[in-house]
Design the sequence.
């Protein structure tokens, strides 16, 4: 398991460490894809909440999960992307790149989870 707190890691650290974890532990999942999803989830937590975030990446039961917990109970919205660079593309990317996305409001905040099946490599 990989766990990173906003007080100890930047968005780029989260992306790089997530991709490295996936490359080492989940060879059937595309590390760059997970890195992109992690980036979008962490950027959303930074941009749209006022508290800390926590990234947890784990592989269990044949599933890789990337979860970002933050201090806001507000659900992430899927809004129209703006061509002026002001955003709106993050959750579109997350939903396009992760087969399963779930938002859970829990306690004082929420967790946004993305999951990928991690199937064992086929024997040659």
Sequence:
């Amino acid at each position: 398991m990989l766990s990173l707190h906003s007080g100890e890691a930047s968005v780029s650290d989260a992306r790089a460490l997530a991709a490295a974890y996936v490359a080492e532990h989940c060879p059937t999942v595309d590390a760059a894809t997970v890195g992109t999803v992690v980036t979008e989830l962490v950027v959303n937590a930074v941009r749209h909440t006022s508290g800390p975030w926590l990234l947890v990446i784990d592989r269990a039961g044949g599933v890789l999960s990337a979860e970002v917990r933050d201090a806001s109970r507000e659900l992430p919205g899927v809004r129209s992307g703006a061509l002026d660079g002001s955003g709106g593309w993050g959750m579109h990317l997350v939903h396009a790149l992760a087969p399963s996305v779930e938002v859970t409001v829990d306690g004082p905040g929420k967790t946004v989870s993305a999951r990928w099946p991690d199937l064992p490599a086929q024997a040659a």
In short: The chain has three helices and five strands. The first strand starts at residue 2 and ends at 5.
